[in-house]
Amino acid sequence: xxxxxxxxxxxxxxxxxxxxxxxxxxxxxxxxxxxxxxxxxxxxxxxxxxxxxxxxxxxxxxxxxxxxxxxxxxxxxxxxxxxxxxxxxxxxxxxxxxxxxxxxxxxxxxxxxxxxxxxxxxxxxxxxxxx
Length: 131
Hints:
By secondary structure, the chain is mainly β. It has one helix at 109-113; strands spanning 3-7, 10-13, 18-25, 33-39, 46-51, 57-59, 68-73, 78-83, 92-99, 120-121, 125-130.
């Protein structure tokens, strides 16, 4: 069964850090484009940043630049979202998604943030940042 499983969400104080995991099951995440999205209450799902099949990071949302990064551990078939200096406005359900087709070295903003370009999605993990 092909699926993405996310973990690592939780409650953290403002200024704190969290590391979210996105693990593939039934297929490999190696050399796949991965996007991280979030959806706050009452808002649409938004793309934040993504990593290309060549491990190049594209930031779509300016508010996370300098605070969020992506890394990949192929041995664990897992992609991570490292979140630092968290703010209350980061509170949302966080999703990872995979684009199995993309071989683009540098993903454009459009490639990064277009929901329809991704094949599989995780179930989402809640991140709550208290002030």
